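Researcher: Sequence of Nascent polypeptide-associated complex subunit alpha follows. Predict its structure.
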Amino acid sequence: MADAHSEAALNMAMKAGSKTEKKARKAMEKQGLEPFPGITRVTMRRARGGIFSINNPEVFKSSTSDTYIVFGEAKNDDAASRAQMEALQQMAMQAPPPQQPAASEPTPAAAPAAESKEDDEPVDATGVSEDDINMVMKQANVSRSKAVKALKENDNDLVEAIMNLM
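Model: Prediction complete. Tokens:
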């Protein structure tokens, strides 16, 4: 057992880059912290919903209590965006290759053309601030007429208008 600890300590010393880190590892060894191998990822959640993750961490466990010490580079982890990226990758792998439309089939470009005509029409913007219209257009990436319509439907509430357009 002593041989395993000294071998683990030697491996840790080789990983330790700076002099300060080596001192910290030596002090931890004196405190009775033992390496806890086999951990590939550590995720920590903060009270306000922030999530941090450490990939390939070095984990130590106290021999006297259930206390763990983790070394590694913590990154702000957004589980929703990571799950979305994984889902997109999975869909891309499963999706069949796009088929060429037949010459007799109507092209779907006709629908956007009708929509763009509707967007070009002048819209009555009375009662709506020009700054609000520009903000909605920029944030929701929509035309002026859609922005005005959304603002009127939501009683000039910027946030609701943008959320309804997204």
